[in-house]
Design a protein that fits this description.
With 664 residues, the chain is an alpha/beta fold. The protein has 21 helices and 30 strands. It has an eight-stranded mixed β-sheet with strand order 12-11-8-6-7-14-15-23, sandwiched between helices. A hairpin with a 7-residue loop joins strand 1 and strand 2. Helix 20 runs parallel beside helix 21. The longest helix is centred in the first third of the chain and has 17 residues. It is globular, with a radius of gyration of 24 Å. It starts with 10 loop residues before the first helix and ends with a helix. Bound molecules: adenosine-5'-triphosphate and magnesium ion. The site of adenosine-5'-triphosphate has 25 residues, from strand 24 and strand 25. This is Acetate--CoA ligase. Its EC number is 6.2.1.1.
Length: 664
């Protein structure tokens, strides 16, 4: 059983569990955008032809491309490189020209309860004015603009205005500190920062402009001042801020000088569109560079096919923050290029109470809804009585992204939010992939809770062992992407070598994603957690995801994180951290610990039985909501806690280390 190839063992084969499957209903299938499985074969036979067709039919080019893919200098891909387009005009002007100007693009819902619906015509007008304003501030093609904003329409307007000018944005999530913001401004050498005075979070104004001031006052590594010349400030929170004269400008004062006349120019397909840093779950964030034509092709295709988008009737809602790639691809570029109507919500799901999201769905008649397992688990913890108070009958499709979705969370989502009827698409992708890579097509795939299942048409993924051979069905290993894809990362900004080392060292011209995965007997893909997090217990390589899913499968558990900690006898031992559901907190910790150890042993096998189970109130998460297992491992092994710059709440780790130390 021991394996020398470093592959991840199939624990499910020990558990002998046959997953339940959910085939598409006849009605859903009949109306689905993709309901003929030949698409997979056709795309596999000629992937470049498939993507060229998507690029030609879904986008408007100012100069058509003749060349599809240039892969002569791997790993630096060029897609559609002799073509030209304007990304913002694809999201705006062309819809207005097609008579869709009156369609609502954005239903904005502010946290304090203010709301505003913006049509495509209005959004186009605002972006044109903003583009004129940015031009007069000196922004031209090739420049970088940092955006540090709350979730308000001006954030999207700013991104599109930057893109319209052929410049690149670097959106920094509004929860990041002055140091993190400054590091990202310096890395991109941005000359303009767009921010707001503050935004609403958890019922109060969270200041942003003061953080920008602080960031710009810091000396950079070589003691040089920042490259920033101007800070443009949107008024939102009405909190007190200081404006430095000559440098800082109010958006609402500046914008009045500009009209809505602006002719969008075409830029080469490989023109940079944005730089975005990864979540930092496994280490120092990487500045991922995305370009224009290929990126827009794949985000529009996947937004339409995976979410079965009907732009004329759907109300789309992706709950991500625009500071993450999910917000870039499935709030800004995919939905707007597809002419969709969507909800944008500023605040947190628990403000003023845990009913807020469901109330928004009811209010706008949201049809297609995309969120993260971390949110679903929070709602499970609070209980189904909250969403059950609202009318969610408009929902016809649900999506998940960010982490593996535990089967128990999948079933809850399906039953409580999806009325036991609607399909759930579990979408695997990364900041680096730019767009969805592995996910069901809801009109075609028989869904399996916990599995992302199948690569998108035109995408080829494999699961390899350490030596680069494909594993058999039923086996685990390392996920790779076989061929270049249109929305792929072009490099790590300013660091080609790190790009090569991180993703291409291991398997040559195959992209190494850093995630473990297993193929089941049908060839479907199950993500098993980060390769960095794989545990080795007495020579058995165990997956964090499967043990966590077993724990979450216990009726008392809301959330779980599992790490491998040094152990004298077994090499590594399984250490689990669990949050109990609100109504289960009467269970004593000792009872919970004994019960959960037994539960894992009986569901997966004695080898996976945790050495420790710690009951905690919170888990350390990145600001995008992902569990940071490397910090838990530090705590479990009694080390000082590592780099916590991307941690949402640094106090959480202190509480957990104290808890672990007390046990020793
Ligand atoms: P860093 O690369 O800095 O450690 P990160 O990987 O968390 O940060 P992202 O690009 O935001 O940054 O996240 C991509 C990762 O999220 C994937 O590699 C995978 O581990 C996880 N992920 C995303 N969606 C899914 C999914 N549907 N199923 C399983 N894992 C997922
Ligand atoms: Mg990553």
């Amino acid at each position: 059983m021991s394996d020398d190839h470093g592959t991840i063992e199939s624990l499910s084969s020990l558990a002998h569990e046959t997953p339940d499957t959910y085939p598409p209903s006849a009605e859903f299938r009949a109306q689905a955008n993709q309901n003929n499985s030949e698409i997979y074969l056709r795309a596999a036979a000629d992937p470049e032809g498939y993507w060229a067709e998507q690029a030609r039919t879904r986008l408007t080019w100012t100069k058509p491309f003749t060349e599809v893919l240039d892969w002569t200098n791997p790993p630096f891909a060029k897609w559609f490189q002799d073509g030209e387009l304007n990304v913002a005009a694809n999201c705006l002007d062309r819809h207005v020209a097609n008579g869709l100007g009156d369609r609502v693009a954005i239903h904005f819902e502010g946290e304090p309860g203010d709301s505003r619906s913006i049509t495509y015509a209005e959004l186009t007008y605002e972006v044109k004015r903003a583009a004129n304003m940015l031009t007069s501030l000196g922004v031209t093609a090739g420049d970088r603009v940092a955006i540090y904003m709350p979730m308000i329409p001006e954030t999207i307007i700013s991104m599109l205005a930057v893109a319209r000018l052929g410049a690149a944005h670097s959106v920094v999530f509004g929860g990041f500190s002055a140091e993190s913001l400054r590091a990202r401004i310096d890395d991109a050498e941005a000359e303009l920062v767009i921010t707001a005075d503050g935004g609403y979070r958890k019922g109060r104004v969270s200041p942003l402009k003061p953080v920008v001031d602080q960031a710009l006052e810091l000396d950079d590594a070589d003691g040089k001042p920042s490259t920033v010349k101007h800070v443009l400030v949107v008024q939102r929170g009405k909190n007190d801020i200081t404006m430095e004269s000559g440098r800082d400008l109010w958006w609402h004062e500046e914008i009045t000088a500009y009209d809505g006349e602006h002719q969008a120019q075409g830029f080469p397909a490989e023109n940079p569109l944005f730089i975005l840093y990864t979540s930092g779950t496994t280490g120092r964030p990487k500045g991922i560079l995305h370009t224009s034509g290929g990126y827009l092709t794949q985000v529009t295709t996947t937004h339409s096919d995976v979410f079965d988008l009907k732009p004329e009737s759907d109300v789309w809602w992706c709950t991500a923050d625009v500071g993450w790639v999910t917000g870039h691809s499935y709030i800004v570029y995919g939905p707007l290029a597809n002419g969709a109507t969507q909800v944008v919500y500023e605040g947190t799901p628990d403000t003023p109470d845990w009913g807020r999201w469901w109330e928004i769905i009811q209010k706008y008649g949201v049809t297609t809804f995309y969120t993260a397992p971390t949110a679903i688990r929070s709602f499970m913890k609070v209980g189904r009585q909250v969403p059950e108070k609202y009318d969610l009958s408009s929902i016809r499709l649900l999506g998940s992204v960010g982490e593996p979705i535990n089967p128990e969370a999948w079933r809850w989502y399906h039953e409580v939010i999806g009325a036991s009827q609607v399909p759930i698409v579990d979408t695997w992708w990364q900041t680096e992939t730019g767009a969805i890579m592995v996910a069901p097509l809801p009109g075609l795939t028989s869904l399996k809770p916990g599995s992302s299942q199948i690569a998108q048409p035109g995408i080829a993924v494999s699961v390899l062992d350490e030596s680069g051979d494909k594993v058999d069905r039923g086996q685990g290993g390392l996920l790779v992407v076989e061929r270049p894809w249109p929305a792929m990362v072009r490099t790590i900004w300013g660091d080609d070598q790190r790009f090569i080392d991180t993703y291409w060292e291991k398997f040559g011209d195959k992209y190494f994603a850093g995630d473990g995965a297993r193929l089941d007997e049908d060839g479907d893909v199950w993500f098993m957690g980060r390769v960095d997090d794989v545990m080795n217990v007495s020579g058995h390589r165990l997956s964090t995801t499967e043990i966590e899913s077993a724990l979450v499968g216990h009726h008392a558990v809301a959330e779980a994180a599992v790490v491998g900690a040094d152990d004298e006898t077994t090499g590594q031992a399984v250490v689990a951290f669990v949050i109990l559901k609100s109504q289960q907190q009467l269970l004593t910790e000792a009872e919970a610990e004994a019960e959960l150890k037994k539960h894992v042993a009986s569901h997966i096998g004695a080898i996976a039985r945790p050495r420790n189970v710690f009951v905690v109130n919170e888990l350390p998460k990145t600001r995008s909501g992902k569990i940071m297992r490397r910090l838990l491992k530090d705590a479990a092994e009694g080390r000082t806690i590592g780099d916590t710059t991307t941690l949402a709440d640094t106090m959480v780790m202190q509480t957990i280390s104290d808890r672990v130390v007390a046990e020793r």
